[in-house]
Amino acid sequence: MKIIIINGPNLNLLGKREPEIYGSKSFEDYFRELQLKFDNIELFYFQSNVEGELINKLHEVGFSYDGIILNAAAYTHTSVGLGDAIKGIDTPVIEVHISNIHAREKFRQHSFISPNANGVLFGFGLKGYDLAIQSFL
Ligand code: DQA
């Protein structure tokens, strides 16, 4: 089974960025823990701060992988293009947010991803990625 985690803008700063909201662990460290825990699946990770690169990655993996876990970060709330990309691919997508986006600013309460996602997880911290992997098993 092939699953990819795709993280959007500013998530390369996890561990340093607003730790009171996003925690103090880097995603690279957390990803290694996930790879050890789920050692029977092929787990991949891609991060970009560039909207088009995220869309290109969705096109690249979206017809052959078994699952996509997408935290589009700020593009969640702005990107018609990412929403359309998910509509256009075959692989099921689980949307993840580390924070509870519904307990924050109003602009975070709208997602262009959710209507096209197979499931949405938010507010569980990094554990949301673990739960999303389990949803594919
Ligand atoms: C986020 C929530 C977004 O609103 C924000 O722009 C992020 C991270 C989260 O994981 O909680 O960058 O997607």
TrEMBL record:
Pathway entry: Metabolic intermediate biosynthesis; chorismate biosynthesis; chorismate from D-erythrose 4-phosphate and phosphoenolpyruvate: step 3/7
InterPro entries the UniProt entry points to: DHquinase_II, DHquinase_II_CS, DHquinase_II_sf
Catalytic residues in the record: 22, 97
Lyase among keywords: yes
UniProt key word Transmembrane helix: no
Gene3D superfamilies: Dehydroquinase, class II
PROSITE patterns noted in UniProt: DEHYDROQUINASE_II
Assigned EC number: 4.2.1.10
Catalytic activity as recorded in UniProt: 3-dehydroquinate = 3-dehydroshikimate + H2O
GO MF annotations, alphabetized: 3-dehydroquinate dehydratase activity
Binding site for substrate: 71, 77, 84, 98-99, 108
Keyword annotations from UniProtKB, A to Z: Amino-acid biosynthesis, Aromatic amino acid biosynthesis, Lyase
Pfam families: DHquinase_II
Domain of life: Bacteria
Site (Transition state stabilizer): 17
Function: Catalyzes a trans-dehydration via an enolate intermediate.
Subunit annotation: Homododecamer.
Record-stated family: Belongs to the type-II 3-dehydroquinase family.
Protein's name in the database: 3-dehydroquinate dehydratase
GN (gene name): aroQ
